[in-house]
Design brief:
The protein is an alpha/beta fold. Helix content is 42%, strand content 14%.
């Protein structure tokens, strides 16, 4: 039987908001009512609901949904950090996606959110030394969501992966808090080098669609990487880089571009910034 997480749902604002929104949706769209009850309304906590949802999506003949749900809930129960991250990521998706109109759509339908929470489970098992299970979960996430996040990568909270298709995050990558990543982004290595070989992304960074950040380089906090850019050198904090290879073209107009999701290129003060 699943190991249900004990959490005071009455004081969980994120869960209460989700539950209320889904209940309203079930009334508005009766054809989905059975699905919505089974996925959200009939559960007592956000963790119970999410474990049910993820297990249903990631299960296979090799690892059926009931067994996989136990695997997921064990990680949720053991790690309060995962439980906090779930809420932070869900709120981030609801706030940064103009099409979200609440937290229900990201929770039910956004594969970026699903892939990220599945990574958090795989990461927990990786840290427990259960590397085979962690890699299996990574593989299933890649197959189902088209997102490949190595379970050894270190990813903060308040993360928004928009659209998500084709996102790749390598083994030694580090992603800070309140980062937004769009579809087709790679945080990868530059070849067959071993050891610490993947990017380090600071807090509040926006990495736009199709960008590739390669090698053990740092993208400073509050930076913006333009769409389609190939970043091979360190990016100073609070700057905008674009191009192939990417170069500094200006300073970001806000401290955390990840929160605004504005992919337009900032070109002011380009000459001063280039020497940073």
């Amino acid at each position: 039987m699943p190991i249900h997480v004990q959490f005071d749902s009455a004081k969980d604002d994120t869960w209460q908001t989700l539950h209320r929104e889904v209940a309203a949706l079930a009334r508005e769209e009766p054809i989905l009512a059975s699905y919505l009850h089974a996925t959200v309304i009939n559960h007592g906590t956000l963790e119970d609901s999410l474990s049910y949802l993820l297990a249903g999506k990631l299960c296979s003949l090799d690892l059926p949904a009931m067994s996989l749900r136990e695997v997921i809930e064990q990680a949720f129960r053991a790690d309060a950090g995962i439980r906090r991250a779930i809420r932070s990521d869900l709120v981030a998706a609801g706030e940064r996606d103009p099409a979200a109109q609440g937290v229900t759509n990201p929770f039910l339908n956004h594969k970026g959110f699903h892939a990220l929470q599945s990574y958090r489970v795989a990461r927990w098992y990786w840290e427990q030394g259960r590397r085979g299970l962690a890699r299996y979960l990574q593989s299933r996430v890649s197959e189902i969501f088209a997102v490949d996040i190595h379970p050894a990568a270190v990813i903060g909270t308040g993360i928004f992966i928009d659209h998500a298709t084709g996102v790749v995050i390598g083994e030694t990558a580090v992603v800070g808090n309140n980062v937004s990543i769009l579809q087709g982004v790679t945080l990868g290595g530059t070849g067959k080098e071993s050891g610490d070989r993947h990017p380090k992304i600071g807090d509040g960074v926006l990495i736009s669609a199709g960008a590739k950040v390669l090698g053990n380089i740092r993208v400073g906090e509050g930076a913006k990487v333009g769409a389609g850019s190939v970043v091979l050198e360190a990016v100073p904090p609070h700057t905008t880089v674009v191009g192939v290879p990417a170069r500094v073209v200006g300073r970001c107009g806000i401290d955390q571009p990840a929160l605004s999701m504005d992919q337009n290129v900032d070109v002011q003060d380009a000459d001063d910034t280039a020497g940073d």
